[in-house]
Specification:
The protein is α/β, with parallel strands linked by helices and about 290 residues long. It has one domain: Luciferase-like domain (TIM Barrel), CATH 3.20.20.30. Helices cover about 35% and strands about 20% of the residues. It has nine helices and ten strands. Helix 1 links the parallel strand 1 and strand 2.
C-alpha cells in the first residue's frame, strides 16, 4: 500500500517544493493539498471540520490556502516521481474550461502524476460568490466533469448542458494520463451512515473514493456499498480506487495502515500537523521511521 501526505496550508512557510521533495526522499508516494479560493467574513453554514461550531471559531487556514494547482505544480517540479493531488478541489467555484486547461497542463508537466480529488463545497456564501448554484451544486459538478472529460479526450469538443453550453472548440494540451487523471470524490460520514449519493456519483463519473473515516469497519461498509452499486451499474468494482484521507493525528501506526490496506485502501494520506517546512520535514522523518523504514 502507498502512503501519502496532506498539507493543510501549503504556503511559503510550508513550501511545497521543500516538503514534497523530502516526502519523496523518505519514501512517501504522494503529496495532497486542499482548496478554498476565498472565505466570506460572514457566512451561515457550519464548517464540517469544526467539532464545536458556534462555540469554537473555524480555523484560520480556511481563508489562508494558496491556489492548490500552483502549489502542486511547485511540488511536482521539485520531485521526480511523487504523485500530487487535490483533497479536495471545489469544482463548481471555477469554470470547467479553465480548470480543464490547468489540470491538463499540470498533468502534462508532471509526466502524468496528478490525482483529481473533487468536492462541491460546504460554504453557501463562498460558493454563490464564485458562481455556484449551491442548492444544486452536485448537478453542476457533474456537468463540469463532463465538460472537462470532453476537453481531455476529444478534439474538437463541445457541450450543451444547463450550466455550460459551448460550440465545438479545441483545448490543449491533453493530459498525459489516459483517458484523463483519476477523479476521486471525497466523503464524510453522517453519524454512522454513508451518503448513498456519493457512491452513485463515483460509479457514474468518478474513478475513486476519498473518504475520511474514524475506524476501519466504516471503510469496509462503504467499500461494500460502493462495490455493490458498481456491479449493479455493470462497472467492474476493482477498477475503483480507494484512498483514505487521514484527519489530524490519524493512522500513525503501522498496524493501522495495514488494516486499512486489508480493507481495500490503495493508499493512506496522512495529515501533516507542522506549520513550517522544517516542522513538516521533521514530522516526515518520524512517520517514515514508523511506517516505511
Amino acid at each position: 500500500m502507498k502512503l501519502g501526505v496532506f498539507s493543510i496550508l501549503p504556503d511559503a512557510a510550508a513550501d511545497p517544493a521543500v516538503v514534497a521533495r523530502h516526502a519523496e526522499d523518505r519514501g512517501f508516494a504522494s503529496y495532497w493539498v486542499p482548496d478554498h479560493l476565498i472565505l466570506p467574513v460572514n457566512y451561515s453554514t457550519a464548517y464540517p471540520g469544526n467539532p464545536h461550531p458556534g462555540v469554537a471559531p473555524d480555523p484560520d487556514y480556511l481563508w489562508q490556502m494558496p491556489d492548490p494547482l500552483i502549489a502542486l505544480m511547485r511540488a511536482a517540479t521539485a520531485t521526480r516521481a511523487l504523485e500530487v493531488g487535490t483533497a479536495v478541489l471545489l469544482v463548481p467555484e471555477r469554470h470547467p474550461l479553465h480548470l480543464a486547461k490547468e489540470i491538463a497542463s499540470l498533468d502534462a508537466y508532471s509526466g502524468g502524476r496528478f490525482h483529481f480529488g473533487i468536492g462541491a463545497g460546504w460554504n453557501k456564501e463562498e460558493a454563490e460568490i464564485l458562481g455556484c448554484d449551491f442548492e444544486h451544486r452536485w448537478t453542476q459538478v457533474r456537468e463540469a466533469i463532463e465538460v472537462m472529460k470532453a476537453c481531455w479526450t476529444e478534439d474538437p469538443s463541445e457541450y450543451h448542458g444547463k450550466y455550460y453550453d459551448f460550440p465545438p472548440l479545441r483545448s490543449h494540451p491533453k493530459p498525459v494520463q489516459r483517458p484523463h487523471p483519476p477523479i476521486y470524490l471525497g466523503s464524510i460520514l453522517f453519524g454512522d451512515t454513508w451518503a448513498k449519493r456519493v457512491f452513485q456519483r463515483i460509479v457514474r463519473y468518478g474513478d475513486g473514493w476519498l473518504p475520511v473515516i474514524g475506524k476501519v469497519q466504516q471503510l469496509v461498509a462503504g467499500r461494500d456499498e460502493l462495490y455493490a452499486l458498481a456491479e449493479q451499474a455493470g462497472r467492474d468494482p476493482t477498477t475503483l480506487r480507494i484512498t483514505v484521507l487521514g484527519a489530524p493525528g490519524q493512522w500513525r501506526a503501522r498496524r493501522d495502515c495495514e488494516a486499512l490496506a486489508a480493507a481495500g485502501a490503495e493508499q493512506v494520506v496522512l495529515w501533516l500537523a507542522g506549520r513550517t517546512a522544517a516542522e513538516q520535514c521533521h514530522e516526515l522523518d518520524a512517520l517514515a521511521a514508523e511506517l516505511i523504514d
